[in-house]
């Protein structure tokens, strides 16, 4: 039986990506859309300034946009809410018994909230058993859009060698700032070397995601790792796809070939590989000279495959490489949908009793 889902922040850039990716989803059907007072009361067709390249799904276009209050007719909610409101709204939904699958930053570092990338740390799902919002409600988050790609690439290096330090410089797409986002006079033919709050997220979130879970179920906990990450974030005139130039210092100082081999050896855990939104390849190493590139490679695996290229030795650290990931699919709506699929496959989502 399919589950009914609501989308909080449905009119925004991430919200629209949810609407597009959930059209014809085998497990989930959109039955509610919600946004701010500016949009509430209008049809979704009239409220959303549609920026997706495909037509707006008819099944959603006629839905009335509601306020983000926990009386939506659905079994769970995806949140693409602005962080100014996500914190309190998501808690209110969890307290009212709704599972909340969020993209917002507000609860990512809460001790009892999984910060989840299903291929990397599915065992962190256990943390929801520590939450006490209500009998059925809980919050699960996915990482910052720039954190996701780098962390997927770091996972095999942590497992095979152990990471001692990371330096990353990002070139992040305009869609990462939502809609309307960065003013065109700032963005066109330019690079903006500042994205508020972004460097802090890149320097902290990977340490929590890559950390092992201790204990199980209601006794589980995650203590973040402690290697230093230095991040410099830039906004560049690309529509979709965050690029990251990463240098890593690894235990045992492996060669670039060994690092590349470790990256190529990464496989998706079996329980995740069969989920509807899991790409065939989560981490692809591309050995072409000038790869990966956003315009050419960002849609690999329907936007869920992270590409790595230019793996080579580093004269300062041990190895360096370039990572590309789709910020609004793998880094937002697609990642959140994969999170929900993992929760559903573990029996943590159900029809809501009213
Ligand atoms: P956006 O385009 O600005 O959309 C924000 C959404 O939040 C809109 O639906 C807006 O509704 C709603 N909203 C704003 N104020 C509200 C209020 N007071 N009450 C209820 N709803 C309100 O932003 P976005 O890029 O989609 O990002 C959404 C969230 O996902 C943010 O927390 C962001 O940090 C996170 N995220 C974004 C990306 C990305 O690549 N863009 C990636 C990962 C995570 P109205 O249309 O009615 O104003």
Protein traits:
alpha/beta; Rossmann fold; 2 domains; 354 residues; 6-stranded mixed β-sheet; single chain; Dihydrodipicolinate Reductase, domain 2; 27% helix; binds NADP nicotinamide-adenine-dinucleotide phosphate
Secondary-structure blueprint of this entry?
Layout: E1 3-8, H1 13-22, E2 28-35, H2 44-47, H3 58-61, E3 65-67, E4 76-79, H4 83-95, E5 99-102, E6 138-141, H5 145-160, E7 163-172, H6 184-187, H7 198-209, E8 213-214, E9 221-222, E10 229-235, E11 242-250, H8 256-264, H9 270-273, E12 283-286, H10 294-297, E13 306-313, E14 319-325, H11 329-345
Parallel strand pairs: 1-2, 1-4, 2-3, 4-5, 5-6, 7-10, 12-13
Antiparallel strand pairs: 7-11, 8-9, 11-14, 13-14
Helix pairs in contact: 1-11, 5-7
The structure holds NADP nicotinamide-adenine-dinucleotide phosphate.
The site of NADP nicotinamide-adenine-dinucleotide phosphate has 30 residues, from α1, α4 and α11.
Structure at a glance:
The chain has 354 residues and is of the alpha/beta class. 27% of the residues lie in helices and 22% in strands.
The spatial strand order of the largest sheet comes to: 3-2-1-4-5-6
Which residues sit in consecutive blocks of at least 5 with pLDDT less than 50? none
- Attached small molecules: NADP nicotinamide-adenine-dinucleotide phosphate
The oligomerization state is: single chain
**How many helices?**
11
Total beta strands = 14
